[in-house]
Design brief:
Blueprint (H helix, E strand, L loop, with lengths): L1 H24 L6 E7 L2 E6 L9 E5 L4 E4 L5 H15 L3 E5 L19 E5 H35 L3 H20 L10 E3 L2 E5 L4 E5 L11 E4 L4 E9 L11 H12 L5 E6 L5 H23 L23 H21 L1
Parallel strand pairs: 4-5, 5-6, 6-7, 11-12
Antiparallel strand pairs: 1-2, 2-3, 3-4, 8-9, 9-10, 10-11
Helix pairs in contact: 3-4, 5-6, 6-7
Length: about 350
């Protein structure tokens, strides 16, 4: 028995030793934590206090490297590029923008002119139209927003409220520090349904089903590794941003991701996800649609949403303020449906 226990202890010691050393070999950044998902596939999960804000991916296709999403801040993206160079020893040839929002595209400029920036056709057009306005608005308003959040932090008493305010401050700071550096770089390669990139070791499938999180979203499917980078279609343990979305089509897209039979699903926001997180996201949308419908049926107005408490478990998810914003958005949609059927 003593001999057996000694062998078990030796095995556990070796396991911890190798696990620690494997982890230590991954490049480090204050903006994100790298997680190896499969051979040549890494998720960059945004740190709470860094300037990445969203998650990203690094994929070694065998002869070329693909990056999925480029963060909101070029400084964080520089770390992502260095990590990709170190891990794959290949040039980054493909950079994918999963949607038009600034938090996944503002690092595009970091990559060499030889790298193709890829998005859906609609997303490219929307970046070209919206990004100059977004940058102008941020330059004029971001300092004031930072000061407002700092004041709220001084008066915050609840630990969860403080954590959420600190997250908001990190987001605004990431935008603010990016302002002097930004150069808009548009996608130069677009697609409308599916684009497959064949590497010498693995294939990468870029897929869009149209409307969902935005008018046109892009996911990355790695069928050989059973891994999906779901873009903004998936928030894990986070209230999603629904204000540019299409709730019914969004739920359809989550079902489509489920049919890809992935074992790991990387969201744009929150920790690593799995199949059950697809259901949780879909149930969230349905729950808020039902709540909006009930409010309308009971004669409640948009103003009544202000006094509504965020129910569990969504009050413990990150971005809890988005719950009421999402409910207002869905209330208006449900109201429109009722008015069009009259």
């Amino acid at each position: 028995m003593k001999y057996l226990n000694s062998k078990i202890l030796l095995f556990l010691s070796l396991f911890v030793f190798y696990a620690v050393n494997i982890f230590a070999q991954l490049p480090q950044s204050k903006h994100f934590k790298l997680i190896k998902l499969a051979d040549g596939v890494y998720a960059a999960i945004a740190s709470d206090s860094g300037c990445a804000i969203t998650n990203a991916g690094i994929v070694d296709l065998g002869d070329k490297t693909l990056i999925f999403n480029t963060f909101i801040n070029p400084i964080a993206t520089e770390d992502l590029k260095k990590a990709a160079d170190s891990l794959t020893h290949h040039q980054v040839y493909y950079v994918v923008d999963s949607d038009f929002h600034s938090d996944v595209i503002q690092g595009n400029q970091v990559f060499s002119p030889e790298a193709d920036i890829i998005s859906t056709t609609w997303t490219r057009n929307e970046i070209e139209k919206q990004e100059p306005k977004e940058i102008k608005w941020d330059r004029e308003n971001i300092s004031g927003q930072i000061e407002e959040v700092k004041k709220q932090l001084e008066n915050a008493k609840d630990s969860l409220e403080k954590a959420n305010l600190n997250q908001s401050l990190a987001y605004l700071t990431a935008i603010n520090t990016a302002m002097p550096l930004l150069k808009i770089r548009l996608p130069n390669l677009t697609f409308d349904h599916k684009l497959t990139i064949h590497g010498s070791k693995k294939d990468a499938e870029l897929i869009t089903w149209g409307k969902g999180y935005t008018e046109s979203d892009c996911i990355l499917n790695l069928p050989q590794d059973k891994i999906v980078f779901a873009g903004g279609l998936l928030f894990v343990k986070a209230n999603p941003y629904m204000l540019s979305g299409y709730p019914d089509e969004w739920k359809r897209d989550l079902r489509n991701i489920d049919r890809l039979n992935a074992q790991i699903i990387v969201p744009n926001y929150g920790p690593l996800g799995y199949v059950q997180d697809l259901s949780a996201s879909s149930e969230y949308i349905t729950a808020l649609q039902n709540l909006a419908g009930e409010m309308i049926a009971n004669g409640k107005t948009l103003d009544d949403i202000k006094s509504k408490k965020v129910p569990a478990p969504y009050n413990k998810w990150i971005y809890p303020k988005l719950f009421k914003e999402n409910l207002k958005f869905l209330y208006k949609l449900e109201k429109q449906k009722i008015n069009t059927t009259k």
